[in-house]
Amino acid sequence: VYFNDTTQENAAGIMMYLTRNITLENNEIYNANTGIFDKGAGQFNTHRFNYIHDVRTSGILKACFGSDVAYGGNPPGCYNLDIYQNIIVTDGIADQGNSGIGITGTTVYTDFEVWNNVIYNAEYGLAGSVNSSGFRAWNNIIYLLGSNGRAYAGVLLNSPVMNWNAYYNDATPNWQTDTGTYTTLSSWQSAT
């Protein structure tokens, strides 16, 4: 999918179901509930070079439920997913629980990488529940507005790697995990 403008306000700008080997790039997506919704067991999918703005929930949302066996997945589940070099600006309405990049599901993610993204005006920079073997997030710039802004919210399992990310909150910095909320980077690093 190349060079699309999406103005649908009632759904995702781009919705994907059980996809493999898909690259979404060079899209401008705006005035949607979610920018890109990669739903179901996706494999070898890449989301890059997209400009996503004025979205209500997540700029990019990856939800992996169930397996992909019936669709040729071997092994089943979500694996080899890359999200990089996107600019994501949400509408900044805190009660929406919006995130720059949201991750959820019941299936283990394998080799899921998030890097070189700019996330601005979100309630959560990265949000979700990740049971992952090989989740890595690095070199992201996350600029959050408001006292509730959190760099990361959710549950991180199986030792994810989160390095070299730049976080800024204009009120009070927060890092949240399944074990608590931390107001300093050093306390968050000690806990994770």
What does this structure look like?
This protein has 192 residues and is mainly β. The protein contains one helix and 20 strands. It has one helix at 185-191; strands spanning 5-6, 12-17, 23-25, 28-30, 34-39, 46-48, 51-55, 58-64, 78-84, 87-90, 99-105, 109-115, 118-122, 124-138, 141-144, 150-157, 161-163, 166-169, 175-177, 180-182. The protein starts with a strand and ends with a helix.
Gyration radius (Cα, Å) is 16 Å
Low-confidence stretches: none
Tally of strands: 20
Average pLDDT: 77
Short structural summary:
The protein is mostly beta strands.
Q: Which structural traits does this protein have?
A:
192 residues, 11-stranded parallel β-sheet, 7-stranded parallel β-sheet, mainly beta
Task: Describe the secondary-structure layout.
Layout: E1 5-6, E2 12-17, E3 23-25, E4 28-30, E5 34-39, E6 46-48, E7 51-55, E8 58-64, E9 78-84, E10 87-90, E11 99-105, E12 109-115, E13 118-122, E14 124-138, E15 141-144, E16 150-157, E17 161-163, E18 166-169, E19 175-177, E20 180-182, H1 185-191
Parallel strand pairs: 1-4, 2-5, 3-6, 4-7, 5-8, 6-9, 7-10, 8-11, 9-12, 10-13, 11-14, 12-14, 13-15, 14-16, 14-17, 15-18
Antiparallel strand pairs: 19-20
